[in-house]
UniProtKB/TrEMBL annotation:
Belongs to the dTDP-4-dehydrorhamnose 3,5-epimerase family. Homodimer. Keywords: Isomerase. Its EC number is 5.1.3.13. One of its GO terms (biological process) is polysaccharide biosynthetic process. It catalyses: dTDP-4-dehydro-6-deoxy-alpha-D-glucose = dTDP-4-dehydro-beta-L-rhamnose. This is dTDP-4-dehydrorhamnose 3,5-epimerase. GO terms for cellular component: cytosol. Pathway: Carbohydrate biosynthesis; dTDP-L-rhamnose biosynthesis. The lineage of its organism: Bacteria, Pseudomonadati, Bacteroidota, Cytophagia, Cytophagales. The record marks Y137 as: Participates in a stacking interaction with the thymidine ring of dTDP-4-oxo-6-deoxyglucose. It is an enzyme of class 5 (isomerase). The gene is rfbC_1. It comes from Cecembia lonarensis (strain CCUG 58316 / KCTC 22772 / LW9).
Length: 178
């Protein structure tokens, strides 16, 4: 695994190693000694995946304190346009975003620290997104900002957005607790 810095402090891309042979491939998405060497969290008490059709936008989500969390995300089938937004009010990159394409055929993950919103758009039908979080889901701390309120240039695909995500507050109206 190789760590690559992004334009947002504390947010990293991690290039994953895949092993291929005549049977297919194997990709390791977590290895505790490597994460320790890279100074990334070692405990992810919650993990889930979602399956999305092309154009589905999920996000921009986060949890507020006391249940805020870091995330390690990847795409295990298909591809996504992935987004992290810095919500740390004392950060020089507050309100700025980082985008990357995560393609299951060229495996990598994005590590998103506490104090960031996260979201993605599925670029293909039947895309499978995998999320690991450093805290468990807490409905009392569940929060988000509207997906199109941060100046992100999303792919030119008609977006499919849930009612909940469509009704999130604008970034300009969000009072950050981070």
């Amino acid at each position: 695994m190789e760590l690559k810095s992004t334009s947002l402090d504390g947010c990293f891309e991690v290039k994953l190693r895949s092993f291929e042979d005549h049977r297919g491939s194997l990709t390791k998405v977590f290895h505790q000694p490597t994460f320790a060497d890279l100074n990334l969290p070692l405990s992810f008490p919650e993990e889930y995946f979602s399956i999305s059709q092309k154009g589905v936008v999920r996000g921009l989500h986060f949890q507020v304190p006391p249940s805020s969390h870091a995330k390690s995300v990847t795409c295990i089938s298909g591809s996504i346009f992935d987004v992290a937004v810095d919500l740390r009010k004392n950060s020089p990159t507050f309100g700025k975003h980082y985008t990357t394409v995560i393609d299951s055929r060229q495996p990598k993950l994005l590590f998103i620290p506490e104090g960031f919103a996260h979201g993605f758009m599925a670029l293909e039908d039947h895309t499978i997104f995998l999320n690991r979080s450093t805290s468990v889901y807490d409905p009392e701390c569940d929060a988000g900002i509207k997906w199109d309120s941060c100046g992100i240039i999303w792919p030119d695909i008609p977006p499919i957005v849930s009612e909940k995500d469509q009704n999130m507050p604008l970034l300009s109206m969000f009072n950050s607790p981070f």
